[in-house]
């Protein structure tokens, strides 16, 4: 196997861990790859770096390749080689807003999306400013879905601010936003800095929400197929390593290094273990499956998840939903994922689509494990069209 040097971009987030671990612990080298990791300060810069060929692959927000497939992004086609993570976001509010919600009787249970949303709307009169890392992001999609399901118009009825993840705590401290939805550890950093409290994990809105993907340019995937397959395997093996509870301390210590997140390892460890401290008083909340890098086909690029994102985006820009779902699904490359892992022990799903929102066992030949993937309002998403 000949070696290949790849430039790979990432944002300093806990869910960049599969790329960092693939590089640091030799999973990439085992596939004959040398990863040059490039930390980017913002999603727009990372997208542009990939688009112009400054890097070969990237840790990417799942809706970005979908938006570009629909022609509402700002660059050429990106293909999704695999999911990198499921879930992993938190919604939080300023300490002032938290005090008001608490005075109104809200208990910050961290589990009830209905109660949290109603308390937020009541405390703000429905008029609030919320920070998200990028317009095309699961942060935005989860917020819109959540608030709309509660009868509050979104995005029309809220003020969205785009804030890079590492800047979220500073934005809320400066009074530029009242609330945020962001990937860890940056929600916890707002708690550490005494400027925010955590309101709800993203998993409480959609327990099986696609979050980050491994993205490449479409032309690169076609021209460098053998390298793409090796990269899929390296990241999949890193995710499998991260899924072992005994490895989490080491993972936190690696991610804490200045080259990566540059944040205290104990703060990173909270997300990996799903044990979050939600306020300065030290109250802890346990979240099942807070972020998942491997279990229950977490890395499979489900075309049904792409279709859900495409449908949501299409509904806001007046596009035909069925056509959007088909275009979105085309860039989630289940064909490459299946080929890459055909020689591994991966339990590959038998289909590319599933009913999103259902709780079911792993869709594999011998899958028997059960996992809740539902939306908080118990809706089920079925694609309108596609192959």
What is shown here, in short?
This protein is α/β, with parallel strands linked by helices. It has helices at residues 17-24, 27-30, 43-51, 63-69, 95-103, 113-124, 138-149, 168-173, 186-192, 218-223, 225-242, 248-255, 265-273, 303-317, 321-330, 334-340; strands spanning 4-10, 33-39, 57-61, 78-87, 89-94, 129-132, 159-162, 179-183, 196-201, 210-217, 275-277, 284-286, 291-292, 360-361, 370-371.
What labels describe this entry?
6-stranded mixed sheet; alpha/beta; single chain; 38% helix; 5-stranded mixed sheet; 387 residues; 16 helices
Description:
This protein is of the alpha/beta class and 387 residues long. It is 38% helix and 19% strand. It has a 6-stranded mixed β-sheet, sandwiched between helices. Strands 7-6-8-5-9 form a 5-stranded mixed β-sheet, sandwiched between helices. Helix 1 (17-24) crosses helix 11 (225-242), helix 4 packs across helix 15 (321-330) and helix 14 (303-317) crosses helix 15 (321-330). It is globular, with a radius of gyration of 20 Å. The chain starts with a strand and ends in a 16-residue tail after the last strand. Residues 361-370 have low confidence and may be disordered.
């Amino acid at each position: 196997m000949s070696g290949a040097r790849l430039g790979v971009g990432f944002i300093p987030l806990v869910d960049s861990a599969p790329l960092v671990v693939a590089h640091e612990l030799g999973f990439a080298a085992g596939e004959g790859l040398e990863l040059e990791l490039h930390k980017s300060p913002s999603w727009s810069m990372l997208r542009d770096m990939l688009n112009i060929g400054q890097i070969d692959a990237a840790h990417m927000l799942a809706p970005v390749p979908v938006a570009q497939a629909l022609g509402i992004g700002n660059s050429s086609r990106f293909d999704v080689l695999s999911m990198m993570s499921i879930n992993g976001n938190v919604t939080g509010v300023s300490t002032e807003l938290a005090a008001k919600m608490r005075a109104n009787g809200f208990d910050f249970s961290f589990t009830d999306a209905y109660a949290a949303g109603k308390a937020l709307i009541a405390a703000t009169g429905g008029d609030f400013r919320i920070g998200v890392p990028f317009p095309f992001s699961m942060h935005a999609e989860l917020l819109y879905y959540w608030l709309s399901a509660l009868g509050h118009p979104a995005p029309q009825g809220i003020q969205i601010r785009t804030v890079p993840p590492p800047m979220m705590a500073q934005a809320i401290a400066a009074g530029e936003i009242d609330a945020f939805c962001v990937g860890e550890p940056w929600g916890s950093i707002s708690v550490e800095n005494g400027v925010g409290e955590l309101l709800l994990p993203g998993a409480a809105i959609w327990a099986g929400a696609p979050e980050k993907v491994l993205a490449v340019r479409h032309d690169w995937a076609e021209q460098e197929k053998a390298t793409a397959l090796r990269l899929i395997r390296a990241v999949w093996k890193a995710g499998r390593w991260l899924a072992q509870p005994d490895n989490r301390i080491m993972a936190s210590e690696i991610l804490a290094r200045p080259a990566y997140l540059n944040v205290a390892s104990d703060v990173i460890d909270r997300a990996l273990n799903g044990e979050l401290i939600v306020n300065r008083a030290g109250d802890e909340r346990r979240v099942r499956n807070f972020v998942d890098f491997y279990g229950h086909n977490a890395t499979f690029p489900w075309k049904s998840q792409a279709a859900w994102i495409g449908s949501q985006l299409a509904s806001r820009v007046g596009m035909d939903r069925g056509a959007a779902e088909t275009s979105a699904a085309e860039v989630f490359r289940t064909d490459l994922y299946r080929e890459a892992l055909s020689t591994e022990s991966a339990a590959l799903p038998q289909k590319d689509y599933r009913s999103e929102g259902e709780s079911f066992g792993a869709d594999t030949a011998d899958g028997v494990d059960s996992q809740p993937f539902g939306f908080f309002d118990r809706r089920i998403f079925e694609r309108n069209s596609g192959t």
